[in-house]
TrEMBL record, chain A:
Function text: Proposed to provide activated sulfate for transfer to Nod factor. ATP sulfurylase may be the GTPase, regulating ATP sulfurylase activity.
Lineage: Bacteria, Pseudomonadati, Pseudomonadota, Alphaproteobacteria, Rhodospirillales
Keyword Kinase listed: yes
Region (Disordered): 419-441
UniProt keyword terms in alphabetical order: ATP-binding, GTP-binding, Kinase, Multifunctional enzyme, Nucleotide-binding, Phosphoprotein, Transferase
CDD domains, A to Z: APSK (cd02027)
Gene coding for it: nodQ
PANTHER family assigned to the protein according to its UniProt record, in alphabetical order: TRANSLATION FACTOR
GO MF, one annotated term: ATP binding
Any one Gene Ontology BP term: sulfate assimilation
One Pfam family this sequence matches: APS_kinase
Protein name: Adenylyl-sulfate kinase
TrEMBL record, chain B:
Enzyme class: transferase
BP terms from Gene Ontology: sulfate assimilation
Gene field: cysD
Family stated for the protein in its record: Belongs to the PAPS reductase family. CysD subfamily.
Record keywords, A-Z: ATP-binding, Nucleotide-binding, Nucleotidyltransferase, Transferase
Gene Ontology terms, MF aspect: ATP binding; sulfate adenylyltransferase (ATP) activity
EC number: 2.7.7.4
SUPFAM superfamilies membership: Adenine nucleotide alpha hydrolases-like
Protein name: Sulfate adenylyltransferase subunit 2
Phosphoadenosine phosphosulphate reductase domain span: 43-233
Known catalytic reactions: sulfate + ATP + H(+) = adenosine 5'-phosphosulfate + diphosphate
Length: 628, 280
């Protein structure tokens, strides 16, 4: 283990009494991470209070906690495995201490959810898991505790494991591992245990498999301005690169306003060499080649790549204040260093953490999660949280208090706003032919293969070939092709960016309807922007959506030029053509890449067909491993 | 004193920062955040290794100069080496130093155990300073891994007018958004080193060549691991006579950092009582 490495930060969540503090005490002890004397001290405290050796006293440093038998505050403790240093953040389980759990969890790379095998994932644990997903903690190790009390019964473990896995899947969280343990006895925690011989890994193995979260370096540049310092005639802009990267010489624009300048220097003090670039997570002090008016709260972006400014946004919020949130409330929304006055114009729905079903609500109380529409008097420069988290999420301040947090789900332009108003009054009737019945009959579940790539990369050809092959095998399948959609459903749209975004939305909504009816939908659509495909993913949902990058370089595509479009674009008879005078943003993390420049059409098709089978077939017997 | 740092190879990828770079970046961001949002801002300088790092980070944040006053809560009981170091650094770093003389021990709560009573003088000194200077923000170099009650701290930790700390009513802190609005009279302790470990502090001190009080280095088999007043702090057994050796020692030690501090263990809750009343 190298001490210079960053520790992996882990938050421990779960219902009170399911054994979080005991597990932490046990981990620290077994990892040999307690200072001398601490065990004796705990023995003394335990004796004084007339309890047996109490592991949780290890971390309950405050007398108040020991006397009441509860953990009040998040505390940090660390230990090391052979692979790395791990820092544990203990998040207390009492409902009224939610603020502390959020405080601890927000900085975590991963979480351990401790669940009592006799009780399962009860409401409090579910709330914690839901909050983790909102806070951006995507990796969860589930520790099913107190296995000794059920005699290490494998069936009991499986029951709780499956129930927890299902719940996490609904939150689009994948458990890294689900492990049976007894924290008090130390079985299968640090070392494997004979009692748990039927399970292949200990909790330590699961922790060793985790990796720290990298900063969002590959996303678009977002630089939040923190302050501006004067140094004689010079103006130094202090801030932090929230995503992307910036280099000396880059032209950047400051929003709102959009004034542009080039980065002249990145200033530093006592640095061995002058910095010429900075990436996500780094603080900077910039000078510019021109005098601009810049102030705290401004956002710098790459010139020409500004996010849309909107006055209304839909957010998913969690509320932490004892004072309930009402429609019409006036709050401040702080995102990065910007500070906006907002009104809660609508509480669209609250979400029942137990069932994840939407519930009508006109008041949101502490601990509740809700979708809200916020409106500001001035345009807000925000991102969709799923695209760029640091500028897509923020805190809600009520008076002096940080009372909640929220993730931007949608930026509501006029068109989207009207649709939202309509949507709210809709009450679709419950379906009688359920997804399960459909899948049973057809042998596959519904789903959407979203083929994106340059014109000429082979999307249409592959989609039609795949459709035919699946059809022959008895699949219920359909192709939504860009050109065909353009001829009808989207015949009123042009090729300007906003029209293309609307086109993608229509195709995504159509694909969702069809996929929900059990069809395997193959979409062949250039969909050049990442944000468009992120929209499609959000509309269709993670469970059904698969982004598939049909990869071929521009030279190959232009040489194929099946529709003669590259020739026309080159001759300037066609403008806004993707790859020529309009950018294509390749996927950053597609579910599958099919490289048609190096694979022939048979191999490309086989690759796609195998993948489809592995993802959506119920017959192949491949159960997708969530613990993989 | 030489401030220039030994040149190190530039990392090939921008993102390939190490642990110290990450800690430095975040702490600089926090110090700038405190300076932008809490006016007037001051800093407590105990002259120990941790607050020296905070000062160093402040110089980095503001490109060489510290733009706020630096306060020493002086009990008159520091070791002579500490005063000598203070006077040298104030000159070399051009600091705006304010020395706050703490009230005598006879004015402290007589129910506190003796060493705790001595430490309480600093709390009283801080209170007097806050009242006089009307500071809204105070930078303090405490760390979570030092002591159990400090582990419970927030980065921006609000204090009532009397300086009291209510551990049950702390604001939520997430996504680097901090509560910085408070009623008149309250102040905020800002802890830019909260997430650092003792080892991080030493490794950073070594990398940046930050000067330290020589008492941290072993002489005749003893060194100070934590520096406090001479009446309540004692050196520990050690042969670590350089920063490299301190780092090697800490990588294997099992003795808590504040073992030489008598206030921490006089009674089970002595340090906690001190902190709730406003101690650092």
């Amino acid at each position: 283990m190298s001490g210079d490495e960053r520790a992996l930060r882990i938050v421990v969540v779960g219902h009170v009494d399911h054994g979080k503090s005991t597990l932490i005490g046990r981990l620290l002890h077994d990892a040999d991470a307690l200072p001398d004397g601490r065990v004796a001290q705990v023995q003394q405290s335990s004796d004084a209070r007339g309890v047996g050796f109490e592991w949780s006293f290890v971390i309950d440093a405050l007398q108040a906690e020991r006397d009441q038998g509860i953990t009040i505050e998040t505390s940090r403790l660390s230990f090391a495995t052979e692979r790395r240093r791990i820092e544990i953040i203990d998040a207390p389980g009492h409902g009224e201490f939610l603020r502390n759990m959020v405080t601890g969890a927000a900085s975590a790379d991963a979480a351990i959810a401790v669940i009592d095998v006799r009780e399962g994932a009860v409401a409090q644990a579910r709330r914690h898991l839901f909050l983790l997903s909102l806070l951006g903690v995507r990796k969860v190790v589930v520790a099913i505790n107190k296995m000794d009390t059920v005699g290490w019964d494998r069936a009991a473990f499986d029951r709780v494991a499956n129930e927890t896995r299902d719940y996490l899947a609904e939150l689009a969280l994948k458990p890294v591992a689900i492990v049976p343990i007894s924290a008090r006895g130390g079985e299968n925690v640090w070392n494997g245990s004979d009692a748990a011989a039927w399970h292949d890994s200990s909790l330590r193995d699961a922790l060793d498999a985790l990796e720290p979260t990298p900063a969002a370096e590959n996303r678009a540049l977002r630089l939040a301005v923190q302050d501006v310092y004067r140094d004689g005639e010079r103006r130094i802009i202090a801030g932090r690169v929230e995503s992307g990267r910036v280099r000396v010489g880059d032209e950047i624009a400051f929003l709102p306003g959009g004034q542009r300048a080039r980065v002249a220097t990145i200033e530093g003090w006592n640095e061995p060499v002058a910095r010429i670039a900075a990436a996500a997570g780094q603080t900077v002090a910039l000078t510019l080649d021109q005098k601009l008016f810049v102030a705290r709260g401004h956002l710098a972006v790459a010139a020409g790549a500004a996010p849309d400014a909107v006055r209304r946004i839909r957010v998913r919020a969690f509320w932490l204040s004892p004072k309930p949130l009402l429609q019409g409330a006036e709050l401040r929304l702080r995102i990065a260093t910007a500070d906006h006055r907002v009104t809660v114009v609508q509480i669209e729905r609250a979400i029942d953490v137990e069932t994840l079903a939407p519930v009508e609500a006109d008041t949101i109380v502490s601990g509740q999660i809700a979708d809200l529409v916020l409106e500001s008097n001035e345009p807000m420069l925000v991102d969709i949280a799923a695209d760029i988290a640091p500028t897509g999420r923020g805190v809600l301040v009520d008076g002096h208090d940080v009372s909640g947090g929220c993730l931007v789900l949608d930026k509501l332009t006029t068109r989207a706003r009207r649709a939202a108003a309509r949507r709210n009054d809709l009450r679709p009737p419950p379906e009688r032919v359920t997804q399960a019945r459909r899948a049973e009959k057809s042998g596959h579940t519904g789903g959407v293969l979203w083929l994106t790539g340059l014109s000429g990369s082979g999307k249409s050809t592959l989609s039609l070939a795949l459709e035919e092959q699946l059809f022959e095998q008895g699949w219920r399948t359909v192709v939504l092709d860009g050109d065909r959609v353009r001829g009808g459903l989207s015949s009123d749209l042009g090729f300007a960016p906003e029209d293309r975004t609307e086109n993608v939305r229509r195709v995504a909504e159509t694909a969702k309807l069809l996929s929900d009816s059990g069809l395997l939908v193959i979409v062949a659509l250039i969909s050049p922007e990442r944000s468009q495909r992120a929209d499609a993913r959000r509309i269709i949902g993670d469970a059904a959506f698969r982004e598939i990058y049909i990869e071929a370089d521009i030279a190959t595509c232009a040489a194929r030029d099946p529709k003669g479009l590259y020739a026309r674009a080159k001759a300037r008879k066609l403008t806004g053509f993707t790859g020529v005078d309009s950018a294509y943003e390749p996927p950053l993390a597609p579910e599958l890449v099919v490289d048609t420049a190096s694979l022939d059409s048979t191999a490309s098709l086989a690759r796609l067909a195998d993948y489809t089978d592995s993802q959506f077939s119920c017959r192949s017997g491949t159960v997708r491993a969530l613990e993989g | 004193m030489k401030l220039a740092r030994v040149a190190q190879p530039v990392s090939p990828s921008l993102g390939a920062t190490d642990n110290l770079d990450d800690l430095e970046n975040r702490s600089i961001w926090l110090i700038r955040e405190a300076y932008a949002r809490l006016k007037p801002l001051g800093m407590l300088w105990s002259i120990g290794k941790d607050s020296n790092v905070v000062l160093w980070l402040a110089r980095k944040a503001f490109l060489g100069r510290v733009p706020f006053p630096v306060v020493q809560l002086d009990t008159g009981m520091e070791l002579p080496e500490v005063y000598a170091f203070r006077d040298r650094i104030v000159q070399e770093w051009n600091l705006d130093l304010r020395i706050e003389t703490c009230p005598p021990e006879s004015e402290m709560d007589p129910t506190l155990p003796p060493a705790t009573r001595a430490a309480a003088r600093k709390t009283a000194g801080l209170q007097a300073l806050l009242e006089r200077e009307q500071l809204r923000g105070v930078l303090v170099g405490i760390r979570r891994d030092e002591q159990g009650t400090r582990a419970k701290e927030r980065v921006f930790s609000p204090r009532s007018l009397g300086g009291n700390w209510d551990v049950t009513q702390q604001p939520a802190e997430f996504w680097d958004q901090y509560r910085t609005d408070f009623p008149v009279g309250a102040h905020v302790r800002v802890h830019p080193l909260l997430d650092w470990s003792e080892l991080d502090v030493w490794r950073y001190t070594r990398r940046e060549q930050i000067p330290i009080v020589p008492l941290y280095l072993a002489k005749n088999g003893k060194r100070y691991r934590s520096l406090g007043e001479k009446n309540v702090t004692f050196p520990v057994d050690s042969n670590a006579s350089s920063i490299d050796e301190i780092i090697a020692e800490l990588e294997t030690t099992r003795i808590p950092e504040r073992a030489g501090r008598s206030i921490d263990s006089e009674t089970e809750d002595s340090f906690e009582r001190l902190r709730q009343a406003g101690y650092m």
